[in-house]
Amino acid sequence: EAGVAQSPRYKIIEKRQSVAFWCNPISGHATLYWYQQILGQGPKLLIQFQNNGVVDDSQLPKDRFSAERLKGVDSTLKIQPAKLEDSAVYLCASSSRTSGRLETQYFGPGTRLLVL
Amino acid sequence: AQSVTQLDSHVSVSEGTPVLLRCNYSSSYSPSLFWYVQHPNKGLQLLLKYTSAATLVKGINGFEAEFKKSETSFHLTKPSAHMSDAAEYFCVVSHNTDKLIFGTGTRLQVFP
Q1: Is residue A113 one of the residues assigned to a domain?
Q2: Which residues on B lie below 8 Å from A4 (Cβ)?
Q3: Closest CA to B83 of B106, B57, B64, B61
Q4: Radius of gyration (Cα) for chain A, nearest Å?
């Protein structure tokens, strides 16, 4: 079974530029998550999708971050404009959760973003 | 509110000696607890999880953890460290929802 795919793996941009990350979850997984992992910290949930609907985006800085999952499969996370403090690893995860049960989340390798 | 505290940011052991990574949790409800491992340039991988069944949980690669409600702890152990165990380990809590709350991580170094 193929895992969660993410691209690009690395990205360097200057502040105030925009950037987009892509995630392809495990086939058949209805739930998709984006996390931000700042150096020295644990991952923090940014947004959760159930199929193509948003379940939780309470931690997403909506003035500059946006995410979509239009067809309930792939997802993109965008930052516009980027700030220095956005430098982090952005992790995508998916799970097969479709009911109230807690299912295992499977993580992709992440995209490492450096904002100069 | 839920949280986890990983008591050590770095742990160093010699190959073949026991590993102990400490984690304390705070939760108003019966929590689900996890340990994830992160190898360099690889995704987070689930080692084991506790979801209110047996308090001693066995995971992959010889790791296990014991849920102790009286101590609000969920320490990760392995009897004998291997060089390949060197990685970052995260203790995670959830209250039976999808929202995972991660600790700050413990970096395990294994010396030959």
Answers
A1: no
A2: 43
A3: B61
A4: 14
